[in-house]
Amino acid sequence: MDTVSLTGKDLAAAINADSKARAAAFAVAPRLALIVANADPASAWYVNSLRKAAERLGIACDTVDLGADASVETLRAELAARSADPAVDAIMLQTPLPAGVTLDDVSSSIAAPKDVDGVSPLSLGLLATGLPGFVPATAEAVIELLKHHEIPLVGKHVAVVGRSNIVGKPLAQLLLAADATVTVCHSRTPDLAAVTATAEIVVAAAGRAGLITGKHIAESATVIDVGTNESADGGIVGDVDADSVRGRAAALSPVPGGVGPVTTALLMRHVVDAAGNR
Amino acid sequence: MDTVSLTGKDLAAAINADSKARAAAFAVAPRLALIVANADPASAWYVNSLRKAAERLGIACDTVDLGADASVETLRAELAARSADPAVDAIMLQTPLPAGVTLDDVSSSIAAPKDVDGVSPLSLGLLATGLPGFVPATAEAVIELLKHHEIPLVGKHVAVVGRSNIVGKPLAQLLLAADATVTVCHSRTPDLAAVTATAEIVVAAAGRAGLITGKHIAESATVIDVGTNESADGGIVGDVDADSVRGRAAALSPVPGGVGPVTTALLMRHVVDAAGNR
């Protein structure tokens, strides 16, 4: 079977064109505060790409580097100060965080109206109840990519591999809201392939390179690869072993060029949305 | 096969004994405000049973009846006032709500430290992230009933039938936290039996009498019945057709006498916990 490549570039371009036009309509440009507290090269690369994306769309971006040794208290104080600052529309906290600090330790200090990556408990609770709020961009990107490629979700069985607070769990909520039957699998699932092979759509969001192979996939399934793992040569590779899945799956999103650009575009759209809350 | 009955009465009695001793240790008894805005006989019966349960445990209980025509604004104002009242430790909003009012319209007016049934967006977000907060009592009762009967969850495949904000969705979070693989099915799942029959544990929380029959259940599965549907004779019946499941399932929780008494006991335990936040 020919496996269709579910690219995200066209969709990202369309979202970005819309965001750029909307951003230009503000008397004062939408402003994102990007909080960093690590010395990780991959994070620095991603922060730089976010800054460039913002610049292209007419979004102001302040990068605040608190250093890799920042304490929970420092992070909370910075997030609370930006939440209270009327000049800042949107806040994003970059990971990884300093050793010993988890996202849950500090995320509640991001005010929900500025929480453009939907990481705070309140944002996640609004998502769980179906109330308006910002949804984690990566989870939303999976849904938007499927919609863009006209892959229906109503009544479909979707297996989500990974139960992180920023991808797997919020994605399960979005899929349920879209009327899919949803199975969440994870590292403690004893026979992963037995579960994923029963699904019509498999979303790989475990953060393990090459975890999902042909034997994990039903014939003609759709496969969405959320993984962004560093490869030996310094590039990124997904959670899906594309060579073994291709020819068996009906469709597969590439890494890079699938979920990734849509995630960045949605983050920037959220920043423009947040500016609308002024 | 002999199907074990997973009764909740012993567990509820043990929880209640502990709550009663803890409640007695407060100089001023823990106080629950029970907000009612309906004229539903089943609700009145349940409110009365909660009042009696509170009384037996030494918990003060104020019933506030806002009438079946209460507006969103009236409900929000009442919930906010009780949230701000230092004499009130805990707040529970009884359903059904007036026509046109949903729980999501008003639940965010319940302050999280008093939200003993875990219905507010913040409470649900704390649950999703694994942070401390009150968990919806019915969802928690399912987990506690399984633990009490020593039915392990790690690595087990659990099918939850129903995706309500107060049972199905929070239960899925608790099951994931307990390392189960979780599938959430619902009214838009095209072939329910095909999904539930692959699970080792099935939780019926759809609110439809007799929905789950023998054909929905794998041989030797464990079945938890969360349903409380009114029967023709004025009693309550579960979502499980017990006659058709018995003899096939390894274990089944009865209705009444299964999840129900544990739910009430956990609610009361939460009231005592909330009093500890004074």
UniProtKB/TrEMBL annotation, chains A, B:
Enzyme Commission number(s) from the entry: 1.5.1.5, 3.5.4.9
InterPro entries, sorted: Aminoacid_DH-like_N_sf, NAD(P)-bd_dom_sf, THF_DH/CycHdrlase, THF_DH/CycHdrlase_cat_dom, THF_DH/CycHdrlase_NAD-bd_dom
Keywords annotated in UniProt: Amino-acid biosynthesis, Histidine biosynthesis, Hydrolase, Methionine biosynthesis, Multifunctional enzyme, NADP, One-carbon metabolism, Oxidoreductase, Purine biosynthesis
Protein name: Bifunctional protein FolD
Quaternary structure (record): Homodimer.
Species in which this protein is naturally found: Nocardia panacis
Catalyzed reactions: (6R)-5,10-methenyltetrahydrofolate + H2O = (6R)-10-formyltetrahydrofolate + H(+); (6R)-5,10-methylene-5,6,7,8-tetrahydrofolate + NADP(+) = (6R)-5,10-methenyltetrahydrofolate + NADPH
GO cellular component, as recorded: cytosol
Family label: Belongs to the tetrahydrofolate dehydrogenase/cyclohydrolase family.
Residue intervals of the Tetrahydrofolate dehydrogenase/cyclohydrolase NAD(P)-binding domain: 136-275
Binding site for NADP(+): G162, R163, S164, T228
GO molecular function, one term: methenyltetrahydrofolate cyclohydrolase activity
Domain Tetrahydrofolate dehydrogenase/cyclohydrolase catalytic: 6-117
UniProt cross-references to HAMAP family, sorted A to Z: THF_DHG_CYH
